[in-house]
Amino acid sequence: MTFSLAVRDGDRFGMVASSSSPAVFARVGHLRSGVGAAASQNVTDPTLGTQLLARLAGHGAAQRALAEVTEAADHIEYRQLTVLGRSGPGFAYSGSRVLGRHASAVADGAVAAGNMLSGEHIPDVLLDTYAQATGELEERLITALKAAVAAGGEEGPVYSAGLAVVADVDWRVTDLRVDWADDPVDRLAELLDIWLPQRDDYVRRGLDPTSAPSYGVPGDL
């Protein structure tokens, strides 16, 4: 139903996810600059992602945040959660009623998890591919997502995918989604090719419009 990867890269956090469900990233992906990243998936309760980030913002301990949220939440047996903080490894939780074949994998600065998977190897594929990939953070994330799909991904086809990165400003410097398509990961990669060369210019536009480049459209700066 969903597989995801969250990573820390210096002071940046990034996440990718894909699913057979529409608009997966609107529900699953949660990131906050300077705090961390969290995913709430399976029978998804998006509030659990925001709760994990709120706990992280309060005390900074990812494992403690996960324990606090899972102990307090209703229907937690249906949920699959991941969380990653400013230091150390990521952590994952899978409830007793998570759907299908499910698995998770963690490393220093990373966590991957999925449900309704073709095999329990998929989270390891996400982590291993990301660790070996090169390029910008977003490019490494999309490389990992492509590898997970190629390795089998979900039991059935996926139809949506998303990618987001937070850095040193209070908004997502990258926030891309394909909400319904037969080839969502390839479409997401195409969007990234368009977006990435302009990413830093749009950050500059937000911080200082006087120094930002013009794109030559009517009414532009």
TrEMBL record:
It comes from the Bacteria. Pfam families: DUF1028. InterPro entries: DUF1028, Ntn_hydrolases_N. PANTHER family: BLL2871 PROTEIN. Gene3D superfamilies: Glutamine Phosphoribosylpyrophosphate, subunit 1, domain 1. This is Fimbrial assembly protein FimA.
